[in-house]
Backbone:
């Protein structure tokens, strides 16, 4: 079936977290009838349990929606769903590059927030046509006029074109679909030119291998074609092409302007790179599509099984998870305290949490995660420069010339009454306030340059707490800047526990060491002998807590006589405890490792 490109619309929905993106997608799917009422369920495009529970989109989905407009013409609307979180900005940019237009969703009760702005800028960079939509108009706290004012003041869009909807109630859905057909442009590109198509996502099917999600910009692609990936020159033979209508629907071919999938016997998801260009092997296009880059992890952490015999299960689980998540990188790691495990790289803290939860739920593993770290640049005295993310690889301080850490540009949008609290939070995290500007009479955008290491712990939770949930946060990486980095070691009974070591700024070391020692004191069970818990930088002890021993009263049987009798018994007990301490081993429970990760109660 050949579809006239005039009747195709490729669009995306961009919004801040929890502004109703998944619910709106559900209503589109119901109105266009591509799935039976019996098979339908809420948040149908969110396939993971964790997405449903948290109300976020992690893995983007696609759906081709046939819609009969009021003018009698049937249009094919390709909805390319995008993740909403800052960790997945690159994936969002590739999905937007596949579209001609975007629906900008604004919550009628919350207004414009940081990621609404960030995603709008991404959409404008790709010259997309924007349709503003005010959602959740059924809420008692909805203020439509205020939302329209924000759309005009903050986003610079015409508020009169905003379409009012309630995705939950199903109000205004037809208006949105009519708006897509009449306001968004059809795709350009000719089918008679050499094939040029963009990979914007992929997922793994255990029976068919990697399913590659593509947008065709020019040319045609059919089953039997020999295709080439332009980033690595890998050549594959296409087995099947088709479109997504929640389930895969095979087709004879995909032509210019269409969105769909190809199956070509690709073994792993990491062989297909998001943003890569596909062309025909025997008739290639002249140049790849712009904007391709490798996804780079920014947060690193080690994952160990709680029981050492769980290592094989963790290996298998990570291999399977990697099939579906190309941005996860990992390598073997070992620790004297925790045994064998893996050092993993993540796109951000949310990505880390998602991977941890999926490993624990889908593969029923019990895990210990070490303190997350970022990549530091180390310049040695002999001018050799290398990058480390693992405290175990930190070299001898005497040989280090200087160290550098990554900085981010943080954009925080808050009501102005929280300005002082936000400024204090950012300054406490070694932030530099570059500027701020009022977006409306009572909302302002504050720009800070902050070390990434200060943000990856609990910055986002703290920001939500001090702004009573009104603060929104978005960031992008800037550069590496010189810092005073030290390695903080935790000693238990004089032995270094490598899994608890952290790379940290010198000014923060004493505070973090004291906190870690207090937490460990509360978590490690008492023994028959005294246990010293110490925080140290090199040979210098900067913090100490002691777990007092269980103590038997050996002098209870002395009911009189000379004091030397009691002393003699106490000295004997002291020698026994000293001997016990030399041979005794302190078992550190899993809860102790987790407790060190928390920065405050």
Residues:
């Amino acid at each position: 079936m050949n579809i006239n490109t005039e009747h195709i619309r490729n669009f995306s929905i961009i919004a801040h977290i929890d502004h109703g993106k998944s619910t709106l997608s559900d209503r589109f799917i119901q109105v266009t009838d591509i799935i039976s009422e019996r098979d339908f369920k809420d948040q149908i495009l969110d396939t993971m349990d964790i997405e449903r529970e948290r109300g976020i989109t992690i893995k983007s989905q696609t759906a081709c929606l046939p819609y009969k407009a009021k003018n009698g013409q049937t249009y094919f609307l390709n909805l390319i769903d995008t993740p909403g979180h800052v960790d997945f900005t690159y994936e969002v940019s590739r999905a937007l590059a596949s579209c001609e237009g975007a629906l900008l969703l604004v919550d009628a009760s919350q207004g414009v927030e940081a990621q609404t702005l960030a995603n709008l800028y991404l959409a404008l960079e790709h010259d997309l046509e924007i349709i503003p939509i005010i959602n959740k108009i059924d809420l008692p706290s909805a203020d439509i006029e205020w939302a329209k004012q924000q759309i005009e003041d903050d986003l610079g869009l015409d508020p009169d074109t905003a379409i009012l909807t309630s995705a939950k109630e199903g109000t205004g859905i037809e208006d949105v679909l009519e708006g897509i057909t009449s306001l968004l442009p059809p795709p350009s590109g000719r089918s008679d030119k050499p094939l040029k198509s963009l990979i914007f996502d992929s997922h793994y099917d255990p029976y068919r291998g990697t399913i590659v999600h593509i947008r065709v910009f020019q040319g045609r692609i059919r089953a039997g074609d020999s295709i080439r990936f332009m980033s690595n020159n890998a050549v594959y033979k296409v087995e099947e092409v088709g479109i997504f209508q929640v389930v895969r629907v095979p087709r004879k071919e995909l032509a210019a302007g269409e969105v769909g999938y190809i199956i070509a016997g690709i073994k792993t998801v990491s062989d297909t790179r998001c943003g890569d260009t596909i062309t025909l092997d025997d008739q290639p296009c002249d140049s790849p599509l712009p904007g391709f880059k490798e996804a780079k992890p920014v947060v690193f952490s080690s994952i160990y099984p709680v029981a050492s015999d769980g290592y094989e299960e963790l290996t298998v689980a990570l291999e399977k998870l990697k099939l579906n998540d190309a941005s996860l990188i990992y390598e073997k790691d070992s620790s004297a305290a925790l045994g064998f495990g893996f050092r993993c790289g993540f796109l951000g803290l949310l990505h880390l949490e998602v991977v941890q939860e999926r490993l624990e739920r889908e593969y029923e593993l019990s895990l210990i995660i070490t303190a997350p770290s970022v990549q530091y640049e180390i310049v040695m005295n002999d001018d050799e420069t290398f990058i480390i993310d693992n405290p175990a690889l930190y070299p001898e301080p005497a040989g280090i010339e200087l160290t550098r850490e990554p900085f981010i540009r943080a954009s925080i949008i808050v009501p102005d009454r929280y300005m002082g609290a936000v400024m204090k939070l950012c300054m406490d995290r070694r932030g530099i306030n570059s500027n701020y500007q009022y977006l409306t009479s009572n909302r302002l955008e504050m720009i800070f340059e902050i070390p990434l290491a200060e943000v990856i712990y609990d910055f986002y939770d703290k920001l939500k707490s001090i702004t009573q949930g009104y603060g929104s946060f978005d960031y992008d990486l800037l550069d590496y800047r010189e810092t005073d980095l030290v390695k903080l070691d935790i000693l238990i009974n004089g032995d270094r526990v490598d899994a608890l070591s952290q790379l940290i700024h010198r000014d923060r070391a004493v505070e973090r060491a004291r906190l870690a020692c207090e937490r460990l004191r509360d978590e490690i069970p008492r023994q028959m002998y005294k246990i010293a818990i110490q925080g140290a930088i090199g040979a210098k002890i900067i913090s100490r807590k002691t777990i007092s021993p269980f103590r038997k009263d050996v002098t209870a049987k002395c009911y009189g006589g000379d004091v030397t009798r009691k002393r003699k018994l106490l000295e004997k007990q002291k020698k026994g405890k000293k001997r016990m301490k030399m041979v005794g081993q302190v078992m550190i429970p899993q809860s102790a490792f987790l407790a060190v990760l928390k920065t405050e109660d």
